[in-house]
Amino acid sequence: MVAALRVARDLDENAVVVFIVCDTGEHYLSKFHSDEWMKEKRLLEPQKITAGLMCGTKRAQAPSQVIFISPGDTVGEALARMDAVGVTQLPVMEDGRSVGSVRENRVLAKVVRNRDLLESKVDEVMEASFPTVDVDASSDEVTRKLRTSPAVLVEEYGRIVGIITRHDVLDTRGS
Questions:
Q1: What is the DSSP letter of 127?
Q2: CA gyration radius for the chain?
Q3: Residue 132 in contact with residue 96, Cβ under 8 Å?
Q4: Helix/strand/coil (H, E, C) string of 59-81?
Q5: Model confidence over 11-56: pLDDT tens digits?
Q6: Architecture of domain 69-128
Q7: Which is nearest to 125 in space by CA: 137, 134, 113?
Q8: Calpha distance 154→134 (Å, rounded)
Q9: What count of Cα atoms within 13 Å lies in the side-chain half-sphere of residue 105?
Q10: Cα–Cα distance, 52 to 136 (Å, whole number)
Q11: Pair type for strands 151-156 and 159-165
């Protein structure tokens, strides 16, 4: 800016000075870009994206707590909860621990054959728990686990704090 003013000082009043400022913030030592903001703007390197960042970014559009079902709830309640929140799978949780999972398509296939299952307990139809990763796990580790599971639970200090689905990974990697 100072250089442009010095050049302009020596020109006549009809002259035009074009001054271009490129400001991405990258050259400022005092500038701070949060990892979450960088990820949202797709400026963060993929290896720096962690499970925690994936959950944190998704929280803007998703519920702030993990939606789950208890093993003692009914299959009908599980299907209703999935429908109400617009998800296709739920972790089955008991005392803060994952004890299983339910997937809408598989439960519905069983209910079509036997409607009485709607009144059965979730623990009668639940499958294996979703795998867990630490909040600091890399996006690569999350992706590896999602090859064999539709969702991954995110754990921080032994507590389930989030869930990442295959769809979430696609949103993170974006185009």
A1: B
A2: 25
A3: no
A4: CCCCCCCCCCECCCCEHHHHHHH
A5: 888 888 887 766 665 555 445 666 666 666 666 665 577 788 777 7
A6: Roll (3.10)
A7: 113
A8: 6
A9: 2
A10: 6
A11: antiparallel
Long-range (24+ apart) CB contacts under 8 A made by 86-90 are 88/150, 89/130, 89/150, 89/151, 89/165
Q: Please, which residues have CB within 8 angstroms of residue 38's CB and are 6 or more apart in sequence? A: 44
Is residue 36 within 8 Å of 53, Cβ to Cβ? yes
Residue 68 CA to residue 61 CA, distance in Å, equals: 17
What is the Cα–Cα distance from 55 to 58, expressed in whole angstroms?
Answer: 5
Indicate the SS3 state at residue 32.
Answer: coil
Q: 143-152: per-residue pLDDT in tens?
A: 999 999 999 9
Confidence of residue 67 (pLDDT cuts 50, 70, 90): very high
Q: What is the mean pLDDT of the chain?
A: 84
